Amino acid sequence: GAGVSQSPSNKVTEKGKDVELRCDPISGHTALYWYRQSLGQGLEFLIYFQGNSAPDKSGLPSDRFSAERTGGSVSTLTIQRTQQEDSAVYLCASSPGGTSGSVEQFFGPGTRLTVL
Amino acid sequence: SQQGEEDPQALSIQEGENATMNCSYKTSINNLQWYRQNSGRGLVHLILIRSNEREKHSGRLRVTLDTSKKSSSLLITASRAADTASYFCATVQGAQKLVFGQGTRLTINP
Fold first, then answer.
1. What average pLDDT does range A64-93 have in this prediction?
2. Which of A21, A112, B52, B107 could be joined to A77 by an S-S link, Cβ 3.0–4.6 Å?
């Protein structure tokens, strides 16, 4: 596609339920990132994929959070047993994955997660 | 946790005026990037300045970088209503991850 897409755009769930958030990166981008934006914490890094592997998952806040990437393309962020503090906008970004840190990241529109 | 601090947190100016936003960071960097965010959703990359550069221009944007003070500024000249957005500086830590400042909410009044 022309840009990074994310689905769903909005998700409302009940506390304790599991949710899956999807990211489709720009075709050909080997690097993929997940970030979270909440009122109290600002923009936080969650996890980085290079291809299908995740060399940096240091930002995942707890073991309830996991992510995978298949075929070097689509990524899914899964949150198990959601808590109210998980409410945030989850942003996905991709980049060509060339020289580290020297290129811009292209962001999707985000998924707004609300945990009731 | 966020490493950058931005000021002001909010800025409201009249259309046509210039807007200046500042960012400070804590670690050594290879480059610093500025992003814009509309309506709390996706971010758009504006400009990247490398650590060996002091100033960079792109259209109505001017970015400066002072590595001795670990600070950067973003100047938007001749502001327009469409410039209303939140602006974030970001540095790269580790191999790839961006660490963002708290952002400046800019409002351009017509």
1. 96
2. A21
Provide CB contacts within 8 A for A38, sequence distance 6+. A44, A87, A88, A89
Whether B76 contacts chain A with CB within 8 A = no
For residue A103, the chain B residue with the least C-alpha distance is B48
The closest CB to that of B31, out of A59, A102, A108, belongs to: A102
Backbone angles phi, psi at A108, to 5 degrees: -85, 180
pLDDT of the residue at A102: 60
Element (H, E) at B92: strand B85-93
**Closest CA in chain B for residue A58:** B97
- The string of pLDDT tens digits covering residues B18-68 is 999 999 998 888 899 999 999 767 899 999 999 999 999 999 999 999 999
Task: Give the minimum alpha-carbon distance from B45 to chain A in angstroms, rounded to a whole number.
Answer: 6
Q: What is the pLDDT of residue B6?
A: 79
Amino acid at B99: V
